[in-house]
Write a structure and sequence with these properties.
433 residues; alpha+beta; 2 domains; 10-stranded mixed sheet; 36% helix
Length: 433
């Protein structure tokens, strides 16, 4: 953002940050909060602590300690941010998006760093990975939460290394799925409501994760890996009454001769249910290069629950690109039986929004510029990046020219055209200075 634009934003920014002052403790921290957020929005080429501090005339060490040592409640800051989003941007068809991003780092002193898949570079590299929860409505989207992923073997099991990097004793290894569940529960506790959750095949490959969401009554559309197994016909169940049965008498078990679970790739290639269906075309996104058209079919499938028994029926949507026939995606949803394929596809392909959020966060706010090594400093930086992005997103929502058209995001209301809201949004600050 240009310096003149930052100056024009200052009055609004002051009122915005005033809502978070109660988290800051002593008065000087309130000034540091504003310095850091203004630095993230400013025209600096590099938006790490040192250039932000130098540009604001603040001692570099002071701003470093604001992130890593000074007493202020970043968890409460995150909660207030989420409550503000829930209050001002509630929408009956809001979509929550779970995803992760990575930050390449050199050395081994930075908290949570290790050699792992780095999406930013597209290969295995030394990096820090963070898990995020995003929130999207037809006119607004922002990041709600983010926290570093603590690897199990290289960090959790080495508490001396954790102490050296400032990892609190209560921070232990949790899988990325557990981090995501915690973020969803935290957002809901703060008043945020999601009509849908959507996530990629890494999360979709975990049946227990899908069961946890279903148990909470949360609708989702999950992308699946090709080797994910389902039943295309509900398997038969019997009571365990035979003396050789390991479980107690009367408990259900699958019939020995029941149909086997098969991979979704096998469903596409060999299932007579799919062969008998007509592939229908859907516009799933309007990009700058034209409409993106996919054709899809949908069949009911059953998953295996924690006891190995069939769940209630779920939707399996198989989609293939019209332009690139080899590009095939598999989606699973626990939505009610009457949900349309078009609505399910709309939600499934809404994941581009979180990629836009990461792009804006890194390109506009320097979310990947942090040079902090301590765990608390990284956690605070991620939360402050959420707060900074939400302010800019609200500013753009107010000043971007309004486009006519119905609200088309699938939700409780039926009969709406889902394609009406499929426009790709421009970069965060396009068209508003």
């Amino acid at each position: 953002m240009e310096a003149e634009a930052v100056l024009r934003l200052r009055p609004e920014l002051g009122a915005y940050l005033g809502e978070f002052e109660a988290c800051m403790g002593r008065g000087s921290n309130r000034g540091h909060l504003r310095t850091y957020v203004e630095g993230q929005m400013g025209p600096l080429e590099r938006k790490s602590v040192e250039p932000i501090a130098l540009a604001a005339g603040t001692p570099v060490r002071t701003l470093q300690e604001f992130l890593s040592m000074f007493k202020w409640d970043h968890a409460r800051l995150r909660d207030l941010h989420q409550r503000r989003v829930a209050r001002l941007h509630h929408h009956d068809a809001a979509i929550g998006i779970i995803d992760e991003t990575s930050f390449p780092k050199k050395g081994h002193k930075t908290a949570c760093v290790q050699r792992q898949h780095c999406g930013a570079l597209g290969k295995t590299e030394n990096c820090v990975v963070s898990v995020h929860l995003a929130y999207a409505t037809p006119t607004f989207h922002t990041l709600l939460d983010g926290e570093p992923y603590l690897p199990e073997h290289t960090w959790h099991e080495d508490r001396a290394r954790c102490r050296e990097a400032g990892v609190p004793g209560e921070v232990v290894y949790r899988s990325k799925c557990h981090l995501a569940l915690g973020q969803v529960e935290r957002a809901i506790a703060n008043g945020v409501r999601f009509a849908w959750l959507v996530f990629d095949e890494w999360y979709g490959a975990k049946p227990w994760f899908l069961r946890e969401l279903d148990a909470r009554g949360q609708r989702y559309v999950a992308e699946l890996p090709r080797d994910f197994r389902v039943w295309t016909k509900e398997p038969r169940v019997r009571a365990r009454t035979h003396p050789c049965d390991a479980q107690r008498d009367g408990e259900p078990a699958l019939m020995v001769q029941t149909n086997p679970a098969i991979t979704v790739e096998h469903v596409l290639g060999y299932s007579p249910k799919v062969r008998g269906l007509e592939w229908k075309k859907y516009v799933v996104n309007d990009s700058t290069t034209g409409p993106l058209v996919w054709e899809a079919v949908r069949i009911p499938v059953w998953l295996r629950d924690e006891r190995g028994l069939p769940t209630r029926p779920h939707h399996l949507v198989i989609a293939r690109s019209v332009l690139v026939k080899a590009e095939i995606k598999f989606f699973l949803s626990n939505a009610p039986e009457g949900e349309s394929v078009q609505d399910l596809l709309f939600v499934a392909f809404s994941r581009w929004r979180v990629e836009r959020l990461f792009e804006d966060g890194k390109g506009e706010l320097g979310m990947d510029h942090f040079e902090a090594r301590r765990y608390v400093a990284i956690q605070r930086h991620l939360i402050l990046s959420c707060v900074s992005h939400a302010f800019l997103a609200e500013f753009c929502e107010r000043w971007r020219p309004k486009s006519a058209g119905p609200d088309g995001v699938p939700g409780p209301r039926r009969g709406e055209d889902a394609r009406a809201a499929l426009d790709r949004r421009p970069p965060l600050l396009a068209g508003v200075g």
